[in-house]
């Protein structure tokens, strides 16, 4: 049987929620990033890494990229949660820049739209968002959709977005 391990890095809970939704649908185990060093990779056929996108970079992805050599021979996938709208052409481009061409060929990468949670955000991330908001305001104006989209918390996460990842995981 295909044994799946999901290692996830979450700051405000979106990535964790998606990981839990995957667990409801598949035979997988979850491990938070903080406990990544306890993983026994030999016990799994498929390793999935999940993290939020942070100024273009998938949280914790450096660690996963280093692990990829050790994990060669296993099925590898990454899912990234983010505030980018699902219909825009940006997600694919933004995610691709996290990997070398060679790594990209060895992976399946999925984008899962999530949202923003100002209540759970740490101080540094709040400050970053404040800077981003003021840039948006200058560039697009206070009434623009783009500015309003980053001005308050919202949650567009949905099990619907998980379908391609679930299909991939169930293929074997
Ligand atoms: C400082 C900061 C930067 C972010 N940058 C991006 C980004 O570049 N692209 C994006 O789609 N979402 C971005 N987001 C939104 C997060 O990726 C989104 O809320 C994600 O689901 C968080 O996952 P987590 O709660 O599991 O940590 C950013 C959020 C913060 C707080």
Explain what this protein looks like in three dimensions.
The model has no long low-confidence stretch (mean pLDDT 95). A hairpin with a 2-residue loop joins β3 and β4 (57-58). 37% of the residues lie in helices and 23% in strands. The strands form 2 sheets. Strands 1, 2, 3, 4, 5 and 6 form a 6-stranded mixed sheet that branches. A two-stranded antiparallel ribbon has the order 7-8. The chain is of the alpha/beta class. The chain has 2 domains: 4-117 and 155-170, Flavodoxin domain (Rossmann fold), CATH 3.40.50.360; 118-152. It is built from 7 helices and 8 strands. The protein binds flavin mononucleotide. The site of flavin mononucleotide (FMN) has 22 residues, from α1, β3, β5, β7 and α5. It holds the Pfam family Flavodoxin_5. InterPro entries: Flavodoxin/NO_synth (IPR008254), Flavodoxin_CS (IPR001226), Flavodoxin_dom (IPR026816), Flavoprotein-like_sf (IPR029039), Protoporphyrinogen_IX_DH (IPR052200). This is Flavodoxin.
């Amino acid at each position: 049987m295909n044994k799946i391990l999901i290692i996830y890095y979450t700051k405000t809970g979106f990535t964790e929620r998606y990981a839990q939704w995957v667990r409801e649908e598949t035979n997988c185990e979850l491990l938070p990033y903080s406990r990544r060093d306890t993983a026994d990779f030999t016990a799994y056929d498929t390793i999935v890494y999940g993290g939020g996108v942070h100024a273009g970079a998938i949280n914790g992805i450096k660690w996963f990229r280093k692990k990829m050599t050790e994990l060669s021979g296993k099925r590898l996938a990454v899912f990234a949660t983010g505030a980018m709208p699902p219909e825009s052409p940006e997600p694919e481009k933004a995610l691709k820049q996290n990997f070398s061409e060679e790594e990209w060929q060895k992976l399946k990468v999925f984008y899962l739209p999530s949202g923003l949670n100002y209540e759970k955000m740490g101080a540094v991330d709040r400050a970053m968002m404040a800077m981003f908001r003021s840039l948006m305001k200058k560039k697009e104006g206070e009434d623009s959709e783009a500015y309003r989209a980053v001005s308050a918390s919202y949650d567009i996460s949905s099990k619907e977005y998980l379908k391609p990842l679930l299909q991939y995981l169930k293929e074997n």
